[in-house]
Amino acid sequence: MIHLNTELQILKTDILEMWNLVINQMSKTSEAVEKADCDIVNEIKANEKRVDAFELKINMDCENILALFNPLANDLRFVLAVLKINYNLERIGDYAHNIAKLIEDTTFSKNSLKETDIKNMFEVSIKMLTDACESFEKEDTHKLQKIFRKDEKLDKANKNANNIIADLIKKKPEDIQSLLNLLSIIRRLERVGDQTKNIGEEIIFYMEAKILRHKKKNIS
Amino acid sequence: MAEYKVETKNLNLFYGEFQALNNINFIAKENTVSAFIGPSGCGKSTLLRVFNRMNDLIDNVKMDGKAFIDGKNIYKKNVVVDELRKNVGMVFQKPNPFPKSIFENVAYGLRVNGVHDNKYITHVVESSLKKAALWDEVKDKLKKSAFELSGGQQQRLCIARTLAVEPSIVLMDEPASALDPMSTAKIEDLIYELKKNYTIIIVTHNMQQAGRVSDYTAFFYLGELVEYDETKTIFTNPKDVKTQNYITGRFG
Fold it and tell me: Which of A61, B17, B175, B244 has the lowest tally of Cβ within 10 angstroms?
């Protein structure tokens, strides 16, 4: 089993490296929104290629492990979970990239950033990603409940965003473009929360062989 | 330095009128594990025996084409077959320890090659048993008969015996097919470790084993080498439909 164990360890190392890259992308995106910094935007765009390369490599490695080693039980659940987490992380990487493109030609007013509480949304989504990463690395599902509750916060913020943005447009119609871009960013942050929640479900599937998809509440 | 450790070029082999191998062009790189897979009677073991000239011992065998080890044609008239078989060791399906002690089984190859230095022999026996992952289990009973060992231990003893004469290539003909699953796993782990220092060619009927242990896989059918590629390619995206049908269990 040495060979299989080695391949599984390599797979875990690779997915964690991709995970940290994606967390870094989200952190840089948050910074870029606040500072309207083009250099940071360019860095995010360049790193997007690395995220995609990771996704392709991890996909292929999972395929090879399934074909060559016929893993069973927890080993099988691990590979299946990594396959899905890989997809989720790539989507989050895409969202970070899309947000960076929205920031490129836009400067957001301090007031609009404050009213939408977007900084907090970024903090919540990054914390969710970081906690999920730690859960996966340490194979400990205790923090995952917090992730599921945080996703509800992001859903609520997204729901309220329409009204907030509409009010801001009424007050300052000349800012409509930047405010619509801000709304798009909020939508994407809500999707980041969804993808991270999905990751949490996959971790539970791997660790506890429970399927939480399509259930109303994620019960511990 | 030769490009490949083991190579055949346009190799054909006949048992009387029956053609067992048809135009085989095979290569194995150094320090890799190559697996031969295919249905019974397709020529896997016959090709394996080409590399240590064991087919010479079978009546009515005719061969044409070339077989190279380290770039040298091993069928040239000036090749010393005993030396070839020191360099190209072989492990068989059924463990076949000699009716001797564990120690003497491993020492035998050295003694028949004229080594008399007992200190050196003891050192080689210990190192070979360690390489075969057997030392810890037998170090306190080296004088006991090899037949007192379990089947899996006997097979690892045979591997140690092969390694004692310092081959660079190890041929394995279904080395685990007579063993229980735990012993099989130990042999497979051993193959994975040994390839760091040896070039290994293994015949196996167990496709999953080929997937687990080998870097390259050669699929044979009716004496022909149908497809040869990296194992992960053979098992995820084989090019030939016969290969695909075999590995998915549709025939063979």
Answer: B17
